[in-house]
Sequence to fold (422 residues):
Amino acid sequence: MHFRFMSDRTGGGVRRWISGALALAALAGMLGIPAAAIAQTTVKVSTAAQLQSAVASANGSGGNQIIALADGTYTVTGTLHVSATHVTITSQSGIRENVIIQGDAMSANAAVQDLILADGTYFTLSNVTLQKAGWHLLQIAGESGADNALVHNVVFRDGYQQLLKVSVDQTSYAQTADNGVVEDSLFEYTAGIGPEYYIGGIDIHAGNNWIVRRNTFKSIISPDTTVAEFAVHVWDHSSNATVERNLIINCDRGIGFGLGNASTSGNTGGIIRNNMIYHDPNDGQFADVAIDLETSPGSQVYNNTIYTLHNYPNAIEYRFATTSGTLIVNNLANHAIDARDGATGTSAANVTNAAAAWFVNPSQGDLHLAAAVSGVVGVGQAVSGLTDDFDGSPRPSSGIDIGADQYASAIKPNPPTNVKVQ
Fold:
């Protein structure tokens, strides 16, 4: 195996070839990852039996494998348990809708409980659809130290409990799953409502430094008993998550850091920014707060847009004396931002009287600004770390807009006037 590195210099090109193990070490060093991460072999599969066999083979051989699925539906008879390191499950086509991995049912009585259980480090799941499980569609096992997981461009739908779970041994917390990324994925219940209240999108226990970005969450709604869990919930000894640029539509609750007023269920630090959250007036009977901090000291919530039409009075809450040192600025909402039960922090430059006409298409969750709304555009505070908006468009150093959308970034520059016509 050879890798070629080329650099062009004035007066001619210079080519340098590096081969074998030296190439792997050099390239891995450039990327900041272990060499094993780029030395994966690929196994192509086209049936559920081959998929299950490929997972077993990857575990037995120590990992470093890409399991690439041909288009089709893979109905497995048991949990795909990935215990080796550097294992990737992906589609050959790269089209997530074309490869469906499923259990037998979305039911408490399902034979397949976890659809995929990953307790090896550097597990990657990409470009597939997961559906039908009695527990979780994907569980990242923090109790086994399953660090550095990557979930990219995956559809999670119709699981009987939380769709993606990051777990921990709550008797010891000796190992945790840290430094994971979940991006560009869809979490939804296709019936427009969940099967029970004990559901959620992403549920992170004792995870540190997770990034949740550019995902869409739909219809995480409890049918009865009580409110569903959050679309994104980071709690139970977690810290320093970044939850940004997500779209949340018609979910009972949006984004939560921590839970209750006990330190054992809390979270530390982290950022919630540039998210859009919308809720119809009649979806579900337990609709609750869009963004919530509970026992989450040092957390920052800024430049989110929230437009909800249910009866819950608050868009953002921070609760309990254990929640201190928070920063809540530049948020745009149509409901109040409320400090409850002794919570403290800085709340400034928030707008809480948003109207539907301010947005492009709120009923579809499109909360981009439809015009340069006075009192919103250009009047936000500078926040350390705020560099872009919901779409990834750059924020200016001054004249920051309130909310997730930087309206000025959508204005096209004037055409050039000095173009020479041949």
Q: What stands out?
A: The chain has a mean pLDDT of 90. Residues 48-60 form the longest helix (13 residues). Helices lie at 20-31, 48-60.
